[in-house]
Amino acid sequence: xxxxxxxxxxxxxxxxxxxxxxxxxxxxxxxxxxxxxxxxxxxxxxxxxxxxxxxxxxxxxxxxxxxxxxxxxxxxxxxxxxxxxxxxxxxxxxxxxxxxxxxxxxxxxxxxxxxxxxxxxxxxxxxxxxxxxxxxxxxxxxxxxxxxxxxxxxxxxxxxxxxxxxxxxxxxxxxxxxxxxxxxxxxxxxxxxxxxxxxxxxxxxxxxxxxxxxxxxxxxxxxxxxxxxxxxxxxxxxxxxxxxxxxxxxxxxxxxxxxxxxxxxxxxxxxxxxxxxxxxxxxxxxxxxxxxxxxxxxxxxxxxxxxxxxxxxxxxxxxxxxxxxxxx
Length: 328
What we know:
Elements: H1 7-40, H2 42-48, H3 53-81, E1 109-110, E2 118-119, H4 134-141, E3 161-162, E4 178-179, E5 190-191, E6 200-202, E7 211-213, E8 221-227, E9 233-239, E10 250-252, E11 257-262, E12 265-271, E13 288-294, E14 300-304, E15 307-312, E16 320-325
Antiparallel strand pairs: 1-2, 3-4, 4-5, 6-7, 8-16, 9-13, 10-11, 10-16, 11-12, 13-14, 14-15
Helix pairs in contact: 1-2
């Protein structure tokens, strides 16, 4: 019966076979070509007898090996890097000889922060058929009211609305005591100290945005002590009337001034004198953006959603105090 071969014997046999294979390969690849070239090539014999030919072989072989290693490593690195998302970090190029995937840098386009292009409203430019001028950018981005020179009153319903004197933010369905003036240092806040006359805060109002809701039946209102009676002015606001009483929504406290609605009609403006036609058209329940402006000398203008309705000198004064009301 044949004895089983142990692991040591198997290993020795395998090593012997590998060594024999290596000698055979070496003989065919190197020894036999060397013998042949030595016998038939005088150039090869002279090169082989050159004193430093082995050093040259070693140097060339080392360089070839290094090139192969770098190629393999480079391929591995390339594959690894390709697994991550590429992020643009250098925006300083502008438009060069090739305009592919580049931008045109104008004086008010800031590119100092990595991965970011900042457009400063008012003087930006795009090389585009859609947005290609400063006015187009302003129409697209809008204008921050706090950048307007001479701003003395700015309120918006998504911030600065309080259920008390400027400490606790109003919540949906809760009452509003103060609507903070965000113009800067003017402090022309809208306030209602009387609890029974405070309007309601609605978080999902006009076009899904927050709004202040004043009810005529409860004589609700917010009041500001701002005085524009004897100065040029521009006043803009967005509102709608949806109840049975279609009276003044934005009006003065201490002189005869109103903008928007009056006595069941919309598109109304009385700046201590009629700027609009009185009493028409009839009010509906849609939201509108009204703008009234006057140079306080010769001309007053009234706009509805940016469309000029009236321009004349029928009334020139601004409001002395402002009230937001659903009644009067």
